[in-house]
Amino acid sequence: MIESLITIAFCLSTALTVAILLLPSQYKPTSDPKEKRSVQILVLGDIGRSPRMQYHALSIARNGGRVVIIGYKESDPHPDIESHPDISIVPIRPHPAYLQTSNKLLFIIYGPLKVLFQVACLWKCLAYTSPPTRWLLVQNPPSIPTLAVSSITCFLRQTRLVIDWHNFGYSILALKLGPTHPLVKLSIWYEKTFCKMASAHLCVTDAMRSVLKKDFQLQAPILPLHDRPASHFQPITDPKARNEFLETLPETKDVRPLLESGSLRVLVSSTSWTPDEDFSVLIDALLQYSEQAVAQPRLPHILAIITGKGPQKEMYLKKIAALETAGKFEKVTIRTSWLTVSDYARLLASASLGVSLHTSSSGVDLPMKVVDMFGAGLPVVGWSRFEAWPELVTEGVNGMGFGSATELLDRLVELFGDDQKLASLRAGAQKESSRRWDDEWDPIAGSLFGLT
After folding, report:
1. Which of 80, 141, 327, 375 is the least crowded, having the fewest Cβ atoms under 10 Å away?
2. Higher pLDDT, 440 or 118
3. What is the pLDDT of residue 171?
4. What are the pLDDT digits (tens) for 302-361?
5. What kind and span of H or E run contains 164?
6. For the chain, how many structural domains are there in total?
7. Measured distance between the N- and C-terminal CA atoms of the chain, rounded to whole angstroms
8. Same-domain check for residues 248 and 208
9. Are residues 176 and 299 in the same domain?
10. C-alpha–C-alpha distance, residues 222 and 163, integer Å
């Protein structure tokens, strides 16, 4: 019975979506030569936490294009985005709080309603609030309702659609509902159908390109565009300068004597606190590390600074607080933080080691946070049990992989117990930092948009 209701609700929301989109738009296509270098960028998420799409905008503007970014404005975008005269932001109205839920049954009920609300908001932003452009660059996922709204908008406005594939929408939905759920199957059909409306595709890995070519059977050009760090991520090579910055952070207040004596290692992890990043892996590894460090004084104290926002944050903070109260983290201190763009870049450059918990729902996407860490010259340990991992990290050269809390513990003990090994990885990460976003973007996306 529930499965039937889900299918009916999904079909109804799709039908209403099409009905809404067939309403006429305010703006008609233009032949103005200036519009040939104009691009709309659609992010159905927080613009400030969508670094790749911000980098797209800055690169387009740098090459003489005009950019309109459409997305949620929940946190501050990159300062250059807000100050650039050729970049404007059209904020999407947030959905009502009561439509957001982690309850599986309520998700089934509220999901279609949330989609319809997003359809109306997207249609207003794309067809009424912003003028027509030559290109529409869409971040995917989320796929629903982004791909449908974008496809029909581009058809009516004679705009060329480009999809930037960060992952697959159906694989993320499968984390919540399970891979055999009828709604997941419908999501697969939806994504494979509407993506064929695009004139071209960008994707984050070669492995993803293979899936799009083989499983999605796309005929339009598919161009791998690997993530690279932006210019504000730079290594800090002087250890003294790194310590001086760390001492300014309130998160280091309780451990500054250890920092000054050299018996502290700073570990950084950026997380969205979602199911595809199992934060319990890091907690378990730090718990076991503390136990070993008590028995082995040669192992330094760890300060773990965790940045980011997300739905599971409070749940994990309660777990951490309970363990701290029980005295389980004698040689580990955990702090959470939300930093400015510049301070986050300096934190990465000043830390001892970065940790990525991204597990990849599809197996062919890659975490942007690791790219940023390499840009700052920070070595990385990360969850490596997915196909695309070797496209980003060279094992033992600029980072190391793990597949369990025990393996992560082994990496921490190995690197924090041997300064030479850690220094060797840092040297590899600093070498990797020379590969920059503009070097990757100009010949691929710049050429596609006719800007380079």
Report:
1. 327
2. 440
3. 92
4. 999 999 877 888 888 898 999 988 989 999 999 998 888 889 999 999 999 999 999 888
5. strand 160-165
6. 2
7. 55
8. no
9. no
10. 10
Residues 166 and 266 in one domain: no
Contact 365, 171 (CB under 8 A): no
Q: Is 240 helix (H, G, I), strand (E, B) or coil?
A: helix
Q: Is residue 28 part of a domain?
A: yes
**The CATH number of the domain where 56 resides is what?**
3.40.50.2000
388 and 302: one domain? yes
Domain identity same for 275 and 200:
no
419-432 vs 368-375: helix axis angle to the nearest 10? Answer: 100
CB 99 within 8 A of CB 117: yes
List, as one string, the DSSP characters of 264-281.
EEEEEEE---STTB-THH
What is residue 33's predicted lDDT score, i.e. its pLDDT? 45
Residue 4, exposed/middle/buried by CB under 10 A (0-12, 13-18, 19+)? exposed
Q: Is 422 found in the same domain as 443?
A: no
Which has the closest alpha carbon to 431: 169, 237, 167? Answer: 237
pLDDT value at residue 27: 44
What is the average per-residue pLDDT within 351-378?
Answer: 93
Contacts of 187 (CB under 8 A, 6+ apart): 143, 144, 169, 170, 173
Q: Is residue 233 part of a domain?
A: no
pTM equals 0.84
To which residue do tokens 């949620």 refer? 72
Task: Residue 266: name the closest of 144, 352, 394 by CA.
Answer: 352
Q: What are the φ/ψ torsions at residue 435 (nearest 5 degrees)? A: -85, 115
**Which phi and psi angles does 441 have, rounded to 5°?**
-75, -45
Domain containing residue 378? 239-435
In a domain, 4, yes or no: no
pLDDT top residue among 413 and 97: 413
Whether 201 and 308 share a structural domain: no
User: How far apart are alpha carbons 4 and 10 in whole angstroms?
Assistant: 10
CA distance 446 to 440: 9
* H helix runs in 63-103, sequence order: 79-83
* 444: in domain: yes
The secondary element (H helix, E strand) that includes residue 89 is strand 87-91
Instruction: Please write the tens of the pLDDT for every residue from 238-291.
Output: 999 999 999 999 999 999 999 999 999 999 998 877 777 888 999 999 999 999
Residue 406: enclosing H or E segment and its boundaries?
Answer: helix 405-416
Nearby residues of 422 by Cβ (< 8 Å), 6 or more positions away:
352, 353, 379, 415, 416
CA atoms within 13 A on the CB side of 220: 16
